[in-house]
Amino acid sequence: xxxxxxxxxxxxxxxxxxxxxxxxxxxxxxxxxxxxxxxxxxxxxxxxxxxxxxxxxxxxxxxxxxxxxxxxxxxxxxxxxxxxxxxxxxxxxxxxxxxxxxxxxxxxxxxx
Length: 112
Hints:
The structure is a single chain. This protein is mainly α. Helix content is 67%, strand content 5%.
């Protein structure tokens, strides 16, 4: 999956809402319909549908048709793309910290 600024903006905006994060968490356990996704919330099914539309527009979930059912599915490739994007910055920061630790260790050795 291509990671560009527009996609990152949509994905992180979508994940900025606690209801949408809860929907992602639920879908990580398997597909679910709007009714199934709405069960634990005290908001309308229409509100859940709007949250699903935001997640779908961000490319984080997909929907399929199974007869009368329209289950939602988590898109693992999208989450992997987000994780990779974050990991690049984490690894860069870790390398900098390791270099700083090495410099500090060298200075400590010289003081002895």
